[in-house]
Structures
1.
Amino acid sequence: QCDWSSDVCSSDLRGNHDNPKFFDGHLENYFTNLHLLADYTVVDIEGTKILGVGGAVSVDRRPRMREQLEYARVGREIELHWHDEVFVLDKEKLKTFEGIDIVVTHTAPDFCMPVNKTGFGYLVDQFAMDDANLKADLTFEREQVTKMYEILKEKNNPDYWFYGHFHRDWNDKIEGTNYRLLGINEIYEYRNWKDYEPDWEKEIGVE
């Protein structure tokens, strides 16, 4: 789950283990200090435009499905997996956005870490032994987020792209955008250096 904060409230996107029904927009203003945002919501914080799109494939979806069925057999309706948890590409909406400064997603384009083109690693390999379509679905989803990136770049040049999901941290600058993968419980404070006085830029050696 990714989130960003202002002085008075927090806005959250759905992760792969969040019930998508809570993030369809009807609860966005239900709480006074928490906004559960629908996919493709743009939040404007002090002139910084932030686009958020949640969702991702859960690598542990098969064990979650089985556990949910076990609960159902004893009469307990407990949801542990949602078939609509995945990232959904909306090309038409993406074409309407301009001036986006920050993108926040749960998963990431396929050129960001982890790059899975040469293998997925031990954890995914273990879950894939019981889930024949897992690796194909993971590959397709990352390709879909890359298409999101390609469409956005036509009219936007985001300064930052934040994502989570992979339980590790990483950052790099690619084609002018700073990509930052946030690990578990990691917090990153975004600062718009463009708002600082020119004298301060000279102080720190920025020409």
Note: Helices lie at 61-73, 91-95, 122-128, 134-152, 198-203.
2.
Amino acid sequence: MSQRTISKQEELTGSNPQQILFAEEITTTKTLYPPDSPRQEIEDKFKNLIHEELQLGSTVSYVGNKKIPFLRIYRYKEAFAFDFVTDFLRRFEANSGDYVFDPFSGMGTTMFASMTCGIPSVGLDRLPIAYFISKTLPLFLVLKENELKEIWTALIPEIQRSEPAKVALDVPIMKVAFDKETLLTLRKLKSAIEGLPSPYHDIFLFLFFSILEECSFTSKDGQFLRLTRNKTTSNPVDAMSRKIAQIEEDVHRMKLLPHDPTVTEKVMPDVYFGDTRDLSNIKFERKPTIIITSPPYANRYDYTRTYALELCFHFVNNFEELKTIRFGILRSHIESKIRKDEAPPHPVIKEVVELLERKKLNNPKIPSMITTYFIDMQKVITEWFKVLAPGAKVAMVVDNVRFEGELIPVDLVLSEMAEEAGFEVKEIIVARYKGNSSQQMKKYGRVPVRESIVIWER
């Protein structure tokens, strides 16, 4: 596993000396809240269950997948690492008799790792690109050497002869993300891929999505796609050729492993396009015994913007359809809509929302987003308790957040909600401490913010 490079804007990982210094700051801070604050009460309640395992800092992010075969191909930046999943499968003493569930499947790391360990799994996601990626990823394990290379060699001449595929060109980002020649080539490449039979159609579409960022003037950075006009972009055919070469290298590497993971029907994951706020229509083979997951963080990030290029090339026909997805996913972003009858579902959230409503915010919708996020997560936790087997274990990565100086202990609030649903909170593991924006530090000081793994048992 490669050592993560730390920049000023990146979170500090547990393997870096700066992280240790940052961690020490919080241990010397007597209190972050007023004595009568619900936040101080909940910190006191769970303090004996909180402990640090800062070596996990590099596994709660996508960085840990950069050398893992197949997982390195598509940059799903919100994913956690393969090693994180295998670690917690080991901690939970999982075996082939277990049934692993990831209700926020993302790129499918939980199911992929479970499959390589011979453990059946099931995944679910409401974002179409995430559902597609996590459903397609296991197909790479059944490829033969040189298989994709031969198909790609035959496909290249078809690209220029193909009609340009229809894409959602009315979405603003699509009007500026590519130069005209690159966009035309990508649309023709997409059409050529559409003619491939299963499963190669999905595999090549996966690779197509993986090159969009490098062929565009955009970068997945923060809340939105960052547009950089002077960015050097890649030729789509060259970019696809490089991805094919990486896949061929990975197929070869997998064949050299002492224990080549055998993909059987029993361990091939089931992946559903669905919403974990309502699991009533999901056909589980049996009650799941383990959840390993990470929900969207309450950090204003809008996945329909981050993954807009992928969505516009395949999953939506126009801007209206994109907005329908935006307003249908978990309400963790700033455009989340709140109903008049909805109120903060927890004393901590009520306190923070009331404090923020009295401040001058850079976006007045932040209190509504915080409220709807925790309303949705309360529904999520209740649904999990309904479907899990007795004794089932949950490992969930969550990120505490800070808005206008007000810290929200997300890990503790969700843990108390879990208790109310019927779970037992076993431990809260601090994987790393993250910094604050320069604006927040200048105005309110520097406060370490936990990124934690909450462990619950049904």
Note: Residues 1-30 have pLDDT under 50 and may be disordered.
3.
Amino acid sequence: RITRQKTGRWKTYIRKPAGTRKAVERNNRDDLIEFLYQHYSEDDKKSAVMDRVFDEFLEYKRDVLSRSQETVERIRYTYRRFMTEEIRQRKMSSITETELMRYVRLIVDSEHPKERALKSFLQMIHGLFHFGYDNHYTSSDVSKRIVAENFYKDCDCSKKEAGKKLFS
């Protein structure tokens, strides 16, 4: 509900966490409505799950950055391969830096990916969380401290024998 004060200013209340409310005033009614729209649309973004943000990330890559369809499909494959259903359904804003680092460690320890697959996975993680931060889906880029060199020792760094390379 928006009301006009005796002073001529427009006033309403917004909900805050823990059930409290905060009074908001503006000189112009349109300014107040614009503020409310920004406030509640930002709350909607904060509740977005990883899958939704990932879909928008791929649209951004394809439409704005003009990446090829093959590149988009390769990113999608990496996402589906390494991201479990549990983390894909979590709110992006609820994932902390420590949780993400533990998750990457778990994936590397359980799958022992090749070095190139690890680089693709970490590149996708960095791009996704940077996109989420830039578009206000999360309050910080929690992937910025994840460095590939910390995980190389647990990768599958074996090389094919010369004879097997010849036949493949």
Note: The chain is about 55% helix and 10% strand.
